[in-house]
Amino acid sequence: MEDPKIKEAREAMDILYEISTLLNTGLDRETLSLCLNLCENGVNPEALAASIFIYTCIFPKSDSSENFEEKVLQ
Amino acid sequence: MSFTTNNIGLTNLNNNLKNNKITGGDIEYERISRALNSLVKYFLHEVSPFEPNKPINKETVGGGKTNNTELLTTRQQHTFDYLIREHKSSSKALRFANLFTKLQSQSIVTRKWSVLYFLLSVSDQSNSNEMTGILYTAPIEQTFSFRGLQNIQNISSITPSPPRSTLRIQKEDPLPIKTGFPKPDLDNNLNNKYNSEKLLLRDIIFIFQGINGQYIKWDSEAKSFIIDLKISINRSTVDLLHRLSELGFLYRRVEEFVKMNANDPFIGLVGQAFCSVLQHELTEYYRFIANLEATITKEVDNQQFLTNGISLKRLLVWTQDSLFKLRIMSVLVDCCKEKRGGALVSTIYNYTNHGDPFIQEFINKMLEEISRPFFEMLQRWIYEGELDDPFEEFFVSCDPNVQEEDLWRSKYSILKDMQPTFISELLAKKVSLKYGDMVALESSIDATYTATSQRLLNILFTKYKLKEHFIALKRYLLLGQGDFIQHLMAQLGPGLGKPATTIYHHNLTGILEAAIRASNAQYDDPDILRRLDAGLLEVSSGDVGWDVFSLFYRVDSPLNTIFTPQAMHQYLKIFNLLWRLKRVEHDLSFCWRRNMTSARSFLRVEELRKEINTSRLVCSEMIHFVYQLQYYILFEVIECSWDELVTDIHNPSGDLDSLIEAHNKYLSNVSNKSFLNASNNQDLFFNTKIDELHNLGVKETIRRDNNSGSRKDQNHSRSNDKSEDPKAIQECLNEVAGQFKSEVVNLLTALAHHQDTDLRFLSVSLDFNEFYHVNEKYPGSRKRTLGS
């Protein structure tokens, strides 16, 4: 059986992903989980959103997240 | 909040990610998340000293954690409200609300607000993505690129150079921090704003009940609520207050109407029901207001409403339903001011066609209550035949002045404007004519209508012997009872030859009694015989008894519902025609008898043989005509119509109306085919003319016979002047015969071109051997035919 914490995390993830699709954010599951991690770590959500926005502007959705990382690191 | 806990959450989420993704990218994700973690660490350490006011940093530092929880929940609430508002489509909002509550129960996500806020901002951006994309890249080139605006994403990914994008990031970065600034300021201001809002909320509760508040007051001149200008509130709040005060305004109108009319006897039962429904709705409204007030007081007292937020805006949303209801009620009050009873019900019924299901349902509910007294009235009217309508609201009205004999026709009438639109006219007619039973459904009305009709007809036929009366009328007025008429004719004959003024009613009655006693009519029901009466029509100068004599049949209520004066008048007309025919026949047969008896005695008088023969021929010609006509009227017309009438009477689905109709049809049939209809003036004219001629002819013949009889006597005594008379007699006879013939020919021509087939058949039966037909073709040969 899974660790209850992992299960809980997955549930939370499911809910948030659903909200995200409902809000039409256009984020996929992986990106979302990364962003959630960042939020959990105390990143300013507005700033994060802005960076996501720029990222989606620069890179079409087909690009892998590695590029994103590189961009952010720049 | 320590970093370790965050790390645990992070690893959990990462594990989650791993579980979700089965492909071999696990190591990559580890790497990315680690890089991100370090990146975040780096940024946080770097940024936090420079941005002490930033709310995020506060939270991250975790110093004012307890203070911030409230703020956080408020923010969550705001975000939530915003999301709800954004997503107007209810199913989405509902789903979102579900997810939101689920999320709140999750303990693993500690920064729910920031997560949500992040999602929201991303969603906002992705909505405006395309437009910013155009601005961001070289717009003109793309707009005019041959694949158009749709590929902007693709092109934009190629065109921008990396330095530009970094610049963008740098520019973008401080922006959210700046926008983050106003939030604490806003929070500080909120207290003031909430304080004023608190007062306004209290005020508005009063306004909802039509009572003046502290700041908002009812202006009776402007007929609206006005806001005290002394307090300074911003425009949007004023607007909100205006919209909220509509409730108070509508409430005042409805309440005013209810108060005015609830105890007014003029408004009637339906109006009272209307008022009671309105009152009921107002009570619901009071309950709602009381709840609101309780919530507001509680929140204001506990200083809680920052969190759960009863605001003017929220109030506006909450009161939407009540506002709609009050609006409808006020509209109804407006349009129903002057209306009563059925009219009121139909006016409200018209609103049930409203497109909004909410309003439709509301109106239906109201209508059910309002129409209750109306249907009660209807029920009593149908079941018990009682018109229980103290305020004259029902669509059937009773005229108490109407006499008993007109009961069926004019006692009850339908008031058009009181008739509810959902009761069709046909149904209303049936209701008004019947004492039956009913539910609102037409089908059951139909069933009971037939049942009551049957009962009514049954009563008429058994108790009032309707059928017997029909038969009696046919027998006596339409000369069905041959022996009786024969007797009557024989008895009356001598008396009626005198001028009309010398004939008296009592003599006629005596003769009538004698005729009844002498004929089979004596075995008839004494009740019917009692109704039979002889009488005189209006006497004009020069009339002889024949012209004015008539038989009457007395009918009283309730039979006069069917035997109306008009119907009786028609009977009378038919009787007169038949009576004249009968008289002609009677005279002719008398003449024939004389001819027969005198034939032998004149046998020896050679000179008169020719004349006598002519007179016999003319006589038999007339007899033939009269017999044919009589046969036609008595059998073809009366019997056929009678048969139809009998079928109609025995029709099981018939009711009194159809019976009356059948009877009327019967009468009009009879009179039409006997040339009595006023439209057939020509026929009538011919008919009377022929009658006259008959009389003339008969008289002439009789006279001639008498003359010849006397001449015969003279012959014996003085035979010298006998050569003169026969000639004159012959001429006279010829003249009469010629006149008769020409009239018959005219009649036949008219009949032959008549629309009615029966009448054409009559012309055939009158002229079956084309005797007159030939004469018509060769008018010159008439004399020869007569002479032969």
TrEMBL record, chain A:
Signal peptide: none annotated. Coiled coil: none annotated. It comes from the Eukaryota. It is found in: Cytoplasm, Cytoskeleton, Microtubule organizing center. It holds the Pfam family MOZART1. One of its GO terms (biological process) is gamma-tubulin complex localization. This is Mitotic-spindle organizing protein 1. Required for gamma-tubulin complex recruitment to the microtubule organizing center (MTOC). GO terms for cellular component: gamma-tubulin ring complex; interphase microtubule organizing center; spindle. Belongs to the MOZART1 family. Keywords: Cytoplasm, Cytoskeleton. The keyword Transmembrane does not apply.
From TrEMBL, chain B:
GO terms for cellular component: gamma-tubulin complex; microtubule; spindle pole; spindle pole body. The keyword Cytoplasm applies. The keyword Transferase does not apply. Keywords: Cytoplasm, Cytoskeleton, Microtubule. Residues 201-431 form the Gamma tubulin complex component protein N-terminal domain. Residues 701-726 are annotated as: Disordered. GO terms for biological process: cytoplasmic microtubule organization; meiotic cell cycle; microtubule nucleation; mitotic cell cycle; spindle assembly. It holds the Pfam family GCP_C_terminal. GO terms for molecular function: gamma-tubulin binding; microtubule minus-end binding. It is found in: Cytoplasm, Cytoskeleton. Residues 466-772 form the Gamma tubulin complex component C-terminal domain. Belongs to the TUBGCP family. This is 9687_t:CDS:1. It comes from Diversispora eburnea.
